[in-house]
Amino acid sequence: MNETTDVAAVKSSHSMLSKVPEITVWFWVIKILCTTVGESFADWIDMTLGVGLVPTAVIFTAVLAAVLAWQLTLDRYTPFVYWLTVVVLSVTGTLYTDILTDQFGVPLVTSSAAFGAVLAVVFSVWFARERTLSIHSITTLPRESFYWLAILVTFALGTAVGDWTLEITGWGPGIAVLLPAGVIVAIVAGWKLGANAVLSFWLAYILTRPLGANMGDWLGFPTDQRGLGLGVGVTSVIFLTAILATIVYLTVTKSDVIESDAPRAVNPSREKVMVGYFAAVAAATIGLLTWANAQPHGAPPGAEAPVTITAIAPGQAAAKFPAVDVANFRALTEDMLIKVKSGDQEGATASAKKLETNWDAKQPTLKAMDGSTWAAIDGRIDAVLTSIRDVNPDPATETQALNDLLTALV
After folding, report:
1. 273 and 404 inside one domain
2. C-alpha dihedral (279, 282, 288, 293), degrees to nearest 10
3. Which of 40, 64, 149, 204 would bridge with 232, disulfide CB 3.0–4.6 Å?
4. Which helix (H) or strand (E) holds 359?
5. Does residue 54 sit in helix, strand or coil?
6. Judgement on whether residues 266 and 333 belong to the same structural domain of the protein
């Protein structure tokens, strides 16, 4: 979809000064690629490399500051710098949401509502100051600053909404991709029928985040978590390569730079009717999610499986698995045990999530090394997760499960 500026002065300088690309099909292709990378690359840095969630967020916040400063110093749209900024924003926004969920235990419904409110405030202040939210008006530093702030919040919001959808429906990420994809198609149809171009653009932009996040999870998740099992590392490489190839193509062909910009005829009455249409699409989406939540379903992908404990010999884990991995799992378990003993249930729950994500990230490698050892450790981790996440957690049960896991990791 394309949107047109309502400011004649902006249009006259658009081809020379615009800091953003034209909204062509290439825009949406590369945007979805970027959102998928945001999900998979953040997980790869955090879990596979073992950097940790908060240190990873600090690193990418610093990288974002540097890349954004570079983008802001340019006087026109440059494909490489622009899309590099989008990729880094995607990763950073994902990490911010993950910190709220995994480190502080903030429910996804709460973070979704909070980020939605923040985005509404950003748009309100932006419009009050500039009288337009059209991205074709990004020709001044204040407007570009509002634009990038809105983009960051849409990534954080989309991550929260995507994960929340998996949580309340129990859908696998492959099925969950269909919901934002379907709503985006409905928005495009509305735009074609005369809906406001700026409103249509931002609605679709927000929804590309859960679409890309679920796509990244679907490709990267192990097969037993309803994914394709490519792994977050491979998924990141595939999509980063696709992004780079697309950027090279756009730089050479300038397919996303349009010199003349004929505005689309605006029909205020039709736009009002289409607002009602968008409201109906929203109501139907809420109805579908409500129905799915009411259906019997299992835990979302990544949640603990039914507990099955198998025997393990003393020192077996250390003998079969890399010492650095065993030490990492043991340190996470010891940290959880300290929190349980001190009565910090919230902290223990956050640590449990970190143990789970690190263990899941290593599953393809460790399971291939020795399946029986992996199964023995996996069962004990499931017992820990079950005890920690019990509706009424019992410290004694938690302690027993943690000590059993620690013994297996000696």
Report:
1. no
2. -130
3. 40
4. helix 345-369
5. helix
6. no
Q: What percent of the chain has pLDDT over 70?
A: 87
Place of tokens 């696709």: 242
Q: Which of 36, 152, 41, 53 is nearest to 100 (CA)?
A: 53
Angle between helices 178-192 and 197-220 (to 10 degrees): 160
Which of residues 294, 326, 355 is at a domain's end? 294
**Residues whose CB is less than 8 angstroms from the CB of residue 143 and which lie 6 or more positions away in sequence, other chains included:** 126, 130, 137
The mean pLDDT value of the chain amounts to: 84
Same domain, 65 and 203: yes
Q: Three-state SS for 188?
A: helix
Q: What is the DSSP string of 298-335?
A: -PPTTSPPPP------TTHHHHHS-HHHHHHHHHHHHH
Q: Tell me which residue range forms the domain holding 126.
A: 8-294
Q: What are phi and psi of 229, to 5 degrees?
A: 80, 20
pLDDT digits (tens, 9 = 90+) for 238-271: 888 999 999 999 888 887 775 544 556 788 899 9
Q: What is the pLDDT of residues 81-130, one digit of tens each?
A: 999 999 999 889 988 988 888 777 788 889 999 999 999 999 999 999 99
DSSP state of 140: S
**Is pLDDT of 11 > 60?**
no
Q: Stretch 153-181: mean pLDDT, rounded?
A: 87
Sign of CA dihedral 225, 230, 233, 236: negative
How far apart are the C-alpha atoms of 354 and 224, rounded to whole Å? 19
Alpha helices of 100-177 — where are they, by DSSP H?
108-130, 141-169, 173-176
| pLDDT for residue 12 | 39
Q: How far is CA 76 from CA 73, 130, 145, 250, in A?
A: 9, 19, 14, 15
Q: What tokens does 211 get? A: 């679409």
